[in-house]
Amino acid sequence: MLLQYRKLIDESSRSRRSNVVLALDVKQMDKASQLRRSLQILRSVEPHICAVKIGMQLLLSLGLHNGIRKIVTLTHEFGLPAIMDAKINDVGHTNRIMTEHFFNAGFDAVIVNPIIGWKDGLEPVFNLARSSGRGVLLLTYMSHIGAMEGYGQKVINPKTDRPIEQYKLFAERALKWGADGAVVGATYPEKIRSICKILGESVPIYSPGVGAQGGNIEKTMRAGARYLIVGRSIVDSEKPKTSAEKIHVQVRKLLAC
Questions:
Q1: Number of neighbouring beta carbons within 10 Å of residue 132
Q2: Is 87 known to be catalytic?
Q3: Tens digits of per-residue pLDDT, 189-202?
């Protein structure tokens, strides 16, 4: 029987004393070199991370059932969970087929976009995840500059018929749907704090955007993020192991506070 995703990442984080999720977004190069570089980085930094996140850019370069499967296999050999960042956002039957492919390739969790809604939207994804012990992370507020244009806009809350920021409505959906995590950009600690008040301890926050995008580790964690998603600060470094270790040391000090 598969270990439930949330228990899997909790155990990985606790045993390694790390809340760092590696975003393995290796720059475009020829396929063999990109795969080799991805595996090299993973081998060198694995003591300092608690999970690996793979984005669509790497999947499209290497292929789901070839290069990506090799990365996922190595990730599991190290006892780390693998997260697919597909931001799933289509009609229900298409979402289910995509999710089946990701889970069959070995991924332990997927990131989804709640804008598509529940019925004939994300319900099949959650049902499949629950039946197979996998996780679903809900994209709640992105880390880029233009995030406010979508996630920050005011909408009408269908329950109260009153205006509410889109990201707060998404946070409420994360609770209602039983998501295993909410993704909130580290570049917006005030949004993390606001969403954390809604989620409490029920849904952990994952924050991308640390380092290259300007997100600050201490501010992000003190605002309420549980996991830090770090990519370019490690992957683009001349010495990924050293960079990952520095981030890990900083995180451990904050966790000890």
A1: 16
A2: yes
A3: 999 999 999 999 99
